[in-house]
Specification:
This protein is of the alpha+beta class and 890 residues long. It has seven helices and 66 strands. Helix content is 16%, strand content 41%.
């Protein structure tokens, strides 16, 4: 019908595209439409005028791809996904880049990605449901929870999936059958655990006036890994017991009586102890035998302890004996809660379930599925009959509070209303006074609720709220009395809860910037607080007026001694200057047992705690100087009867710790100059040493090491080791007598023997230098050191990063090398032909000086910070928590 081939080709292309338009416009089954399109394209693609169809293909093919993508999502059909992708390939093949419908293709691709995720989710859900049922059949509930956890990690939107919830409900029912009581009589341990410590001196410092009406009462605190009891009237320390740095359970009085015994949770020994309030004397100890995060709970003359492995241990309050435990099919991270009558126990499992247990029969009465994830619940349930409140942390910074209702027997747990959303994580227990419930979060949000009767209306009504703020997450502790609310977090704030106006009215704030470490307690009109100041290591316990927050007294606890305790000022007296700027003098003769010294000889306020490594420098006039790297002043303890403390301003912030030298204080500055100052006036006794200036970086000097009375070694923190001495002309001044070039900065102390100096460079290599000329000698690749090198007798010892103790002599030779499995070293001393080494973990070991062989060992039962110091046949050690410990030399 056409006069030439060109017109015929054009006509065939037009007819083919018309049929394709008709198929697309009337499409119901996009799969058939794709088949039609592929057939038509196959017929016309060889025509020489096919180019005229490309523009129309750019419009029609994306419609087919989108239609297939939509049907694939609706029908959840993987084959339709493949066909939509095939259509996209047609677009890529037949549509030129200039006509490419980029946005439409992107939309189809995104749609297909979502569909594929849905298809993968459905497949994963089916696989997980099957795995859960199999785990139930095999009595492996934790395996089932692990399957669920992995599924939700990949597909969080399945959290509320009905099929998954039904499967986990089946799992919960199966878990109820697995709860069982194990009758296993376990008697209490001996009241006093064996200890080699002959003397324990507790160093504290208190000041202020007596709190009225507190005679005979006690208050308790945790500080430096220890439990403390203090007199509520004046803050006098009564006793201290080390319980481990992981412990966060403040001693709990077992009754309202001021003289009531208290329960102590000992994380170091995994035990619970009952002790006398006034003396700290142990009445009984019960060794739980495994770690537990949960605080012990008292109910009807029994102590209940929830362990990580899933044992709910029952301990008799009077004897400390345990008749047995309730075994749950999963671990626990918080303790149980009881109703007011002690008839029902509510115990949260590590994940998903709330178990309801009879304390009398120990049977599991029911299990409620809450669906909480591991580590998401940090506080135990709160029971205010007939309600049970459970706070669950969700996501990065939100939480919900489940409001559950029970029947008259405390059973038939069920949601009483929709869960309450909270801004932030709940890290401290909610508090109740009357019908008022207060919840705090780590983002500073405060919620006040009124608890109502179950019917009519909602059980919980929000009364007032303080929104979350932008501060860093931090536990906020609440104390509620009537309508007065104290919040201890970053500072202490007093609010009035004004229910009629629906607001929290702030009254005052004190100690802004301080971090509070425990919930406040109140006795009468006195509030007791535990906090730590910014940049300071000690813990402060104080008694304040409830009304205006003004302070009665304050006690400084657990400030570590700065460096090794010192002897020498007077016979039988040990001097300790701690990191909080308090000076103590301890008469050591004839001491035994526990000694409390809670009044410092002198003290001063410090803006920042001194580092524990900052040992006081002993100066020529007998005074002490304490300062830390980067600090612009030094604390001077005068050698007088009163041993007063005062500050000495330095000409330059310190580039390292100072030492006594040249009749004064040697202070290397960050700008490079090395000063020798009169400790009384601050004037320069000797003109400073100035190294050659190079660059603008501040000097990070190594620790100076004395070479007799008139010389010293000092590394500049760069690549030079100096031997400095004093030159008399034109005026007395420090001068470099010798230098040695280093391959990198010295990263450890210098150990100086008679003829050899040892130093560790930045590559972790121990290098030797002959004295006095500093000629380089042999070196040893140690791979870094964690302690030393230190001179002991006529040898130098160092502990490598790899855990080997290595000894070197004055002839620049390695004498011996032994494995050291005891961890970091706190200090060392010489005793005849042996070395005494104290480990940070709490052991004192005697090793042979000639071979490094371990000869004997004693464990003191708590971490050590410095020492040992030999006084007669006994060794004195400094604990990390502000104590001195005395043991017989091993």
């Amino acid at each position: 019908n056409f006069p030439d081939d060109s017109k015929a080709s054009t006509a065939r292309v037009h007819r083919g595209m018309a049929k394709m338009r008709q198929a697309v416009d009337g499409a119901r089954n996009w799969s058939n439409t794709l088949d039609t399109a592929k057939s038509l394209i196959g017929e016309i693609s060889t025509e020489k005028d096919f180019g005229e169809a490309r523009k129309e293909l750019a419009a029609l093919l994306p419609k087919i791809a989108a239609g297939l993508a939509d049907q694939a999502r609706e029908q959840r059909d993987a084959s339709l996904v493949d066909k939509s992708k095939a259509t996209l390939k047609l677009i890529d093949k037949y549509v030129p880049k200039t006509l490419m419908p980029t946005q439409k293709v992107a939309d189809v691709t995104a749609s297909l990605g979502l569909t594929e995720r849905i298809l993968g989710r459905d497949a994963a859900l089916a696989t997980t449901l099957k795995a859960i049922q199999q785990a139930i059949a095999e009595n492996q509930p934790q395996k089932a929870y692990a399957e669920r956890k992995q599924l939700l990690k990949n597909y969080p939107d399945l959290l509320s999936n009905e099929q998954l919830q039904k499967a986990v409900l089946s799992l919960s029912e199966a878990e109820q059958q697995e709860v069982r009581y194990v009758a296993e009589n376990k008697p209490a341990a001996a009241a006093a655990d064996a200890s080699p410590v002959e003397v324990e001196v507790v160093l504290a410092n208190r000041r202020g006036s007596d709190a009225p009406g507190m005679a005979g009462r006690m208050t308790y605190a945790l500080a430096g890994g220890a439990a403390f009891a203090l007199q509520a009237a004046d803050g006098k320390v009564l006793w201290r017991r080390f319980v481990g740095y992981d412990a966060d359970f403040t001693p709990l009085p077992i009754a309202p009586d001021p003289a009531s015994d208290v329960l102590i949770s000992d994380a170091a020994r995994n035990e619970i102890a009952r002790v006398e309030a006034a003396s700290g004397q142990v009445r009984w100890r019960h060794v739980v035998g495994e770690p537990f995060d949960a605080h012990p709970v008292l109910s009807r003359n029994q102590v209940w302890v929830a362990t990580r492995s899933g044992r709910l241990v029952v301990i008799d309050l009077e004897s400390g004996d345990s008749p047995g435990y309730v075994k749950l099919p999963q671990g626990m991270r918080v303790g149980p809660a009881f109703d007011s009558r002690g008839q029902t126990c509510y115990q949260l499992g590590e994940n998903s379930n709330l178990f309801v247990i009879s304390p009398q029969s120990h049977e599991c009465r029911e299990v409620l599925y809450l669906g909480h994830e591991p580590e998401s619940v940090r506080v135990p349930p709160l029971v205010v009959s007939p309600y049970v409140f459970v706070c669950e942390n969700r996501g990065a910074d939100d939480a919900v509070m489940h409001v559950l209702l029970t029947d008259e027997q405390g059973l038939s747990l069920r949601p009483a209303q929709a869960s309450v959303t909270l801004s932030g994580h709940v890290q401290s227990p909610p508090v109740v006074a009357g019908r008022t419930l207060v919840v705090t979060t780590d983002r500073g949000a405060i919620y006040s609720f009124e608890i109502n009767a179950p019917d009519p209306g909602p059980p919980l009504t929000k009364v007032a709220e303080k929104p979350a703020d932008d501060s860093a997450p931090l536990a906020r502790y609440a104390l509620l009395r009537n309508s007065q609310l104290w919040i201890a977090g970053l500072g202490l704030t007093r609010f009035d809860i004004q229910q009629a106006r629906g607001r929290l009215e702030p009254k005052w704030i004190h100690d802004e910037g301080d971090t509070f470490l425990a919930a406040p307690t109140v006795e009468g009109d006195v509030v007791f607080l535990t906090r730590r100041k910014k940049n300071q290591s000690e813990v402060l316990v104080s008694a304040t007026k409830a009304g205006d927050g003004s302070r009665y007294w304050e006690a400084q606890l657990a400030a570590p001694p700065a460096g090794t305790p010192m002897t020498g000022k007077a016979d039988g007296v040990m001097t300790v200057l701690n990191t909080a700027g308090s000076l103590f003098e301890v008469p050591t003769a004839d001491l035994s047992g526990r000694v409390i010294q809670d009044r410092a000889v002198a003290s001063t306020d410090v803006e920042q705690s001194f580092p524990e490594r900052a040992s006081p420098a002993v100066l020529a006039d007998g005074s002490l100087a304490l300062a830390g790297t980067g600090q612009p002043k030094a604390l001077i303890a005068d050698d007088s009867e009163k041993r007063g403390l005062r500050w000495l301003q330095l000409p330059d912030p310190l580039g390292t710790l100072p030492i006594g030298f040249g009749g004064g204080l040697l202070a290397p500055g960050r700008l490079g100059q090395v000063f020798v100052l009169d400790p009384a006036t601050g004037r320069q006794l000797i003109a400073p040493f100035q190294p050659r200036l190079s660059g603008d970086e501040p000097y990070a000097w190594g620790l100076p090491a004395r070479l007799g009375e008139k010389e010293m070694l000092l590394a500049d923190g760069r690549k030079t080791l100096f031997r400095l001495g004093t030159a008399p002309q034109p005026q007395p001044h420090l001068v470099a007598l010798a230098t040695a070039e280093l391959l990198g900065p010295i990263t450890a102390p210098l150990a100086v023997l008679e003829k050899t100096a040892y130093a560790v460079d930045g590559a972790g290599e121990l290098r030797s230098y002959a004295l006095p000329g500093l000629k380089a000698g042999p070196s040893w690749p140690l791979g870094g050191v964690q302690w030393g090198p230190v001179r002991l007798g006529d040898q130098a010892l160092t502990l490598t990063s790899g855990g080997e103790l290595v000894c070197f002599d004055d002839q620049r030779q390695q004498v011996w090398k032994v494995a050291w499995p005891h961890g970091p070293v706190a200090g060392a001393a010489v005793d005849k032909d042996s070395y005494l080494l104290a480990s940070v973990s709490g052991s004192v070991l005697r090793i042979a000086a000639g071979s490094g062989a371990e000869q004997s060992k004693v464990d003191v039962g708590e971490p050590l910070g410095a020492g040992p110091v030999a006084v007669g046949n006994r060794l004195w050690l400094a604990g990390h928590g502000g104590t001195l410990l005395c043991v017989a030399a091993p």
